Known about the structure:
The protein is mostly helical.
Amino acid sequence: MTDRKIRTIGQVYLQCQRSRVACDLEMQKLAEQELLKRGVAVKEILTEEERAEHAYRKTKIVITDEILAQKYLKELKESKEYQVLEQHKAVLKSEESRFLAAAEEIFSDSKIWKFCENVRGLGSVAAMTFFTVLDTEAIMRQNDSRGFNDTRKVITAGKVWKYLGLAPGQRLESGKLGGFNTIMKGRTWMISRNVIMANDPYYAEIYRIEKEFYRNRPDLIAENGYVVRCPGDGHYIATQQTIKGKDDEVYCPICREQVKAVEVVSHKKKPGWKKWIDAMASRWMRKILLSHVTEIIATSEGCEFSKHANYVPPKPLLPGEQELILERFRNERLALLDKYIRQFAETGNAQTIRENMQSYWSK
Length: 363
Ligand SMILES: [Zn+2]
């Protein structure tokens, strides 16, 4: 097991970082209140998906008069009260970086640190966050995905999700704001976003492959696009293309040609499809990354880590090995997609596909 002492350093560091972030947020809120009061900004309600980007806030501020807003902000920042806060923030910042440097010396020998150095967009703060938060003993104590108490000393992906509040059905409850799950969700969201933005050749590619998979899954398209039938064998085709009526041409993946949509079964194009797909794919990549990180920590601490079906391993050091794994993953996804498209063409029933879908995480 990990040395308590090391994990405690990490915990104290995260608390230290948290108070600096809290100070930042309070100052930001103060500025926003000022702009609202002066009538140069309005409140906008955030959607469920947008909230993660804004530290799970329900609203955001939109400035309506840029010039006046700048003037009022300048006045605020020149006030004595604001400067007291500003100075305090600077102290917290320098404390935090001093602490981080000292902690780095201790953490830098760990396997998880080396893993984070090998992934673009991850760094010392990510390594310490993972190491501190993914408490293997606490994870082992979780019930498994079916709610059974698993007494084996084994770590599974399902237990990790339960522990982090990422299991299906574990929605964020507003009453729990500020709790462990909220902080972890926010942090892991940021961390995985960084990996995508930094375009890590392994994890960003996994994200893109998964996004392409979602983008073409007929059951998902059927819920957010059009379902038509082809003239030949009456194949059901799910498409994102706007169908104005019969005779519009559409590609049938079974007939492998452009065909006339003889029958329009449903059309319910919903807005925000791209964002939705993107959020799903990035959530999936986040789970992969977290399960890899847990695996590395667990195995280095001598715990058993149970691998799931279609296991994708943590990013290996050699680019050649990475490419082989990605190629295999890409082909698996294509084969699965082909299977779903065929199933859908036969029945036109998204629900059947969904029910028979084997979860990636199931064993
Ligand atoms: Zn057809």
